[in-house]
Amino acid sequence: MTSPRGAASDASSPLPPWGGGPGWCLSRHHRVLFPEADHPSPQPPPRSGEGENEGIRLSSSPPRFGEGPGEGLTPPPTLTLPPKGGGNQSAVAPTTTVEEAADREWDAAVVGAGPAGAVASRELARRGRTVLLIDRATFPRPKVCGCCLNSAALGTLAAVGLGGLVEQCGAVPLGRVRLAAGGRSAELGLPGGMALSRDVFDAALVREAIAAGASFLSGTNVVRSLRERSSPNRSRSERTKFQAVRGSDTAVVSAGVLIAADGLNGQLTASEGSHPTVAPGSRIGAGAVADTAPDFYNPGAIFMAVDRGGYVGLVRLEDGRLDIAAAFDPAFARDAGKLGSAAGAIVSEAGLPTFPGLNDLRWRGTPALTRTPRRVAGERWFAVGDAAGYVEPFTGEGMAWAVASAVAVVPLAAPPWHPGLAREWEETHARLIRSRQATCRAAARVLRSPRLSRWAVRLLSVAPVLARPVVAALNRPAHAPGPVA
Length: 485
Known about the structure:
- By secondary structure, the chain is α+β, with helices and mostly antiparallel strands.
- It is built from twelve helices and 22 strands.
- The protein has helices at about 100, 115-125, 150-160, 165-170, 200-210, 270, 330-335, 340-350, 395-415, 420-445, 450-460, 470-475; strands spanning about 25, 55-60, 105-110, 130-135, 150, 170-175, 175-180, 185-190, 195, 215, 220-230, 240-245, 250-260, 275-280, 285-290, 300-305, 310-315, 320-330, 365-370, 370-375, 375-380, 380-385.
- The protein starts with about 25 loop residues before the first strand and ends in an 11-residue tail after the last helix.
- Helix content is about 25%, strand content about 25%.
């Protein structure tokens, strides 16, 4: 399933929120990326501090696991599971206030409480570190992308003691993917996987972080990061500081390190001079959830429709709703007039059943998917998850990259800071994540060609065994540290 995520110069100056210039607004809180009768006026991008892919903006033109000591680890806490069933779970209350957060000096502050941020916070807290987890949203919050967890993601969760979390949240086991193009289809086996709505999954991970000892501050924007120096003679900062804003409450918070987990359009890495490079021709992501859909889309399978202009993935969630996630060429989406129309055209041309009401769904979108930041680490900061770069995914790889990077960064974020840690995270991230993204880059190139994708589906329909190497590569487990005894 595709997962299709000028500040003032000193603390005394006014610190405006992260904002941008003109361009299409493609927020998850907006329906479309182009004018429609029911579309609200474009808004500036939200401030940093969001979950992965949460706040996004699209302009009309593209702007070895880390090794470390295991001492100090505490056993995994008992899973604190939310009640099953979509949006019926209770809210995750913040455990601190902005004022209380400002009164402490944290070992680590994690900005963004999506899977990468929540898992990193939990693992740091298990190592006895004081951790502040911040997100601009309140939880649970809807999120349609990333509803599929492949076996690589599940393996990483199991390695840190969260192996039972997804299943106990009511996730739907996935055993196959049905790939369709040009009226033909091929059914391929999957080596395991789960479908689970992001509102349930993300809230469950935040609860796990809290249970491990992390403090949680929701509904809070991080406006910018600052630097604190112990004396004028020192050349390197002793702490990192940032301004946190929650409603009318504003305070400066201090931490030893900052972990940027603020998503595909996160601004923390940009504030450190690490502006992302968007790949030419990158597709945009979009998604919605349908309460009703044809019975053809049965649980346990990912349905993938491929045609000119993009592809659409459909999967049943734990509460019976149908998650629809897509990657579109921007021009194709604009020409279609509505995101629902674009999705319906691809599904129909591929030969899968379409259904009425696609345009009436609440569509959310992302900016250009494939992007690479200049750096993924710097002085007292690390980027994880989508904030550390993203490649157009296929069947759940984005979630696997997110949780793998979260676990891998912990041995580097937990010790006392020294400059070599930033370089080590650059090397670790390249080895662990970017090398795995190469397979998705290759798959995306095939899917971009209608002729190649139709040829591939025809071939796989008679010889599905040919897909095994690709499926195995996409689900290859990360070499995570073993569970703590």
